[in-house]
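Changelog note: in this version the structure field was regenerated for every chain. One regenerated record is shown below for reference.
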Amino acid sequence: MKIIIVVGMPGSGKDEFLKISKKFGLEVIKMGDVIRNEMIKRNLQITPEQLPKFASEEREKNGMGIWAKRTIPYLTEKNSVIEGIRGDAELNIFKHNFGGNLDIVCIFSTPKTRYDRMKKRERRDDPSKIDDFVDRDQRELRYGIGNVIAMSDYIIVNEGTLDDMEKASERLIRNIIMDVE
């Protein structure tokens, strides 16, 4: 079983990588869904404001690796992609559990490209103002996402077209999966 951790700043193109991963039959696990499931279990309201607040509170109470620990039971024996890792503590938990079967893929886009994409896609939790965008990036960096990006085994620079991103993702996934087979 191969585990691919996909990491990148908001708006970098991680969801596009996940779409391609599914085409290759990889199981996709979003840590944000793990957080949502936990909120549902506790009968908590899920809003764009409450989700990060709840995730942070759980990290404060249970340690920075809590969401990695809660993600592991979602994995099966299939090759999988995990999206949503935020820092060293989570990465260390995945490394401890999967060791050499783990690869980290960073999807990189410049802040300008990411902000422009986020304005176009209009998700409920996307910032509408540049100050909110910067604040969100700073929150992600405080969690330690930059350290995970620095530890990446592979980087896809996503500054071109969607077709460019799809081709780069396909090539990389093929190479990673071929290492397993």
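Spot check on this record: The domain at 3-176 is CATH 3.40.50.300 (Rossmann fold). The chain has a mean pLDDT of 93.
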